[in-house]
Amino acid sequence: MAEIRRIDPSWKIKKDLFKDLPHITSVLSWPRKYYQKRITKIGFVGKDTCLLDAACGSGIWSIAASYHNKEIRAIDATKKYLSVAKEINLKYQRKNLQLKLGKLENLPYPDEYFNYVICYNAWMYTYRQKSLQEMYRVLKPGGKIYLGSIAGLGYYLMLLFQGVKEGNRVLVLTALRAIRDRVYMTEKESRYLLGKQGFKILSLDSDALVGDSKIKVKPVFSAKFLGFWNIYEVLAEKI
């Protein structure tokens, strides 16, 4: 994803609005309909459904989901990312989308409120068990959760190799710190925490593969590096 730097015109915004946030520019390089297709692939659609985008970041999943669900709630703990989401939504005026500042470990929503929860590129950076407990709490029985872009050990090994190759000391140190601090999540850990919380795993696979196999979506990340998960994702159900 990092090598793509041009914001897709479908987002109706200018690149210079987020020039100090290269990650945001990168995720916006994929068109809105790409994310809508991914929403459809995981089956998070319905005329009367309510969806939570937990750690919504720039709000791209929220906006995409707003075309396929009755009600969207989106929350993020980082003010600058939430301001991006609000700026983008000003262009779209999605009236069924509400954005809020808050943490995954203390979701400001009632029990059993949502049909679906999306948590993309965030779970591993939280207090994992506590945030999972909260997402479980706000899901209705039989509700589904999509945990996307979970970084495995392979992701940081890849960054480490890249940093060494490029002579990029910052990238090398970032990768080493992440490995030391166990920022990555193994498949075993994900399966254990989900099972302990009461989720039934429906699918665990590499990026853009969980969900309807008939709907083909281009992955953003490769599956593995040196035999370790690079990026993977999970679709699970509350039982």
What does this structure look like?
By secondary structure, the chain is α/β, with parallel strands linked by helices. The chain has one domain (about 15-150, about 185-239): Rossmann fold (3-Layer(aba) Sandwich), CATH 3.40.50.150. Helix content is about 35%, strand content about 25%. It is built from eight helices and nine strands. It has helices spanning about 20-25, 30-40, 60-65, 80-90, 130-140, 155-165, 170-180, 185-195; strands at about 50-55, 70-75, 95-100, 115-120, 140-150, 200-205, 225, 230, 230-239. The chain has a seven-stranded mixed sheet with strand order 3-2-1-4-5-9-6, sandwiched between helices. Helix 4 (about 80-90) links the parallel strand 2 (about 70-75) and strand 3 (about 95-100). Helix 6 (about 155-165) runs antiparallel to helix 7 (about 170-180). The longest helix is centred in the middle third of the chain and has 14 residues, at about 80-90. The model has no long low-confidence stretch (mean pLDDT about 95).
Q: Helix segment count? A: 8
- What is the string of SSEs from the N terminus onward? HHEHEHEEHEHHHEEEE
Please state how the strands of the largest beta sheet are arranged side by side: 3-2-1-4-5-9-6
* Low-confidence residue ranges: none
For this structure, what is the CATH class? Alpha Beta
The gyration radius over C-alpha positions equals 17 Å
Using the 3D structure, state the CATH architecture.
3-Layer(aba) Sandwich
Number of domains: 1
CATH topology: Rossmann fold
